[in-house]
Amino acid sequence: MQENCIRLKQMVITLNESLTKTKHDMLKYQEETQTMQMKLERAEKLIGGLANTKEGWGIRTEELKKQYEMLVGDALITAAYMSYSGPFPSEFRDVLLTNLMSFVKEFKVPHSKDYQFASFLTKPTDFLKWSFQGLPDD
Question: Which letter, b or e, does each residue of 47-86 get, where b requires 16 or more Cβ atoms within 10 Å of its Cβ?
Answer without folding.
Answer: eeeeeeeeeeeeeeeeeeeeeeeeeebbebbeebbeeebe
